[in-house]
Amino acid sequence: MKTVPQDAVHITAILGESVVFNCHVDFPGEHPVPYVLQWEKKVSEKGQEIPIFIWYESYPTHSGEGYEGRVSRVPPNSTFGAASLNLTDIRESDQGWYECKVVFLNRPPKQHKNGTWFHLDVHAPPRFSVTPEDIIYVNLGDSIILNCQADGTPTPEILWYKDANPVDPSSTVGIFNDGTELRISTIRHEDIGDYTCIARNGEGQVSHTARVIIAGGAVIMVKILTKNEPTNLYHTL
């Protein structure tokens, strides 16, 4: 990739929304002349750039693959520069470097410089990629791992709660792998309950609750009356 100028414009957009890259046209001698507008996006660390939008007056515009219907030239009568680009339905894959190029026809390529570099950051609210089962059956003494992973930009923070209270790590309960795993090495009665993982970043938060309960069938209690003793005995079937 060519050297990016220090005055490159940095823009932050929200997933699913739209953004305008504001690029001006500086005509030679301040007299309008025909020009071609081309927007390119860097697509690899080796500097490869692909055109995502090409415009020339009275000719059909060209939109790059994946940008069809999402890129358009900003109307000339707007408050933005004449070479500005509107990008809609923002995707996370849109993040990266963009260059606005204005090429004047019938002019030496280096006679007059136009163009601006932009870097687009795309922010997205958290969304889960891995969550525990809604109900987890265990036996006392078992070991379990509750796995909760989320995507989003910025990278979401993972928090764990048990019965609405923050999980308190102990000798048998721990949180590992950047918060994505809650491990219980030896299940005790006090470990039974609802475990909620919360993924959050500056764009929002999501939560998922897993209920940990003791495994086993129902227990039926039968009351037995004796003739000689007034005591009521209960037997388990």
In words, what does this structure look like?
GO terms for molecular function: cell-cell adhesion mediator activity. Keywords: Immunoglobulin domain. This is Ig-like domain-containing protein. It contains no helices and 20 strands. It has two domains: 9-124, Immunoglobulins (Immunoglobulin-like); 131-214, Immunoglobulins (Immunoglobulin-like, Sandwich). The termini are far apart. By secondary structure, the chain is mainly β. The model is unreliable at 218-222 and 231-237 (pLDDT under 50). It has strands spanning 9-14, 19-21, 35-42, 49-56, 62-63, 71-73, 85-87, 96-104, 116-130, 135-138, 144-147, 149-153, 157-162, 165-166, 173-176, 181-184, 193-201, 204-214, 221-224, 233-236. Helix content is 0%, strand content 48%. The relative contact order is 0.16. Strands 1, 3, 4, 5, 8, 9 and 12 form a seven-stranded mixed sheet that branches.
Provide a brief overview of the structure.
Keywords: Immunoglobulin domain. The protein is mainly beta and 237 residues long.
